[in-house]
Amino acid sequence: MQKVSIVFHSVSGNNYLIAKAFYDSLKNRNIDVNLFKVRDDDFEKLANTFEFAKKYKDEIMSVSLYDFNELLDSDAIILGSPTYFGNVSAEMKSFMDEFADYWPDAKFYGKKLFAFACAGTPEGGGDMCLNAINIFGQHLGMFNTPIPSNLLEGISFPAYGLLHYVGDNGDIRPDEKVLKAIDKICEILCTQK
Ligand SMILES: Cc1cc2nc3c(=O)[nH]c(=O)nc-3n(C[C@H](O)[C@H](O)[C@H](O)COP(=O)(O)O)c2cc1C
User: How far is the CA of 126 from the centre of ligand 1 (A)?
Assistant: First the structure.
């Protein structure tokens, strides 16, 4: 695996922090890596609504929008979304729907896919958000990379993606354990055949 593109949607910063941790870990492993966000016309308005969301507003605004040429050139794509009503956000879904242009010629066939998501609470359907990302990838012929928790130390996620609970107020940020797991996931993604 030589080139990876990470694409995220984030309003209050949690998915951004996870995306950035993937970016930093892959960069440290000498992977050619892109960090992209999806289009979100309401972002600035929404991010200004909550005090804790404002913290990463400027950083998120400075991230480049996805570029399909870069995605096509990547060996792996890492996608992260907030869970909105047990699914990906509308912004992530509109990004996914743009792949329709690349489906007929199977342009994404054979690329690796890794999914991550944030959700408010464990009963909030975050696993269905991960599932939506993985099903999307399967439609395009991408290979989900399962990482069972027994390969990670001291933290448990579904085997089909990383899921972080942000709490009812959305302000439980990914901690050291999550960041360490992300680093381990990157090690596995880089060494796996
Ligand atoms: C419109 C909306 C719908 C949401 N629906 C759910 C949900 O169904 N389940 C859940 O656990 N959390 C839900 N949440 C909480 C978000 O998943 C959480 O705030 C988000 O993942 C935080 O990600 P971010 O910090 O990257 O923006 C919802 C939040 C919003 C704004």
Answer: 9
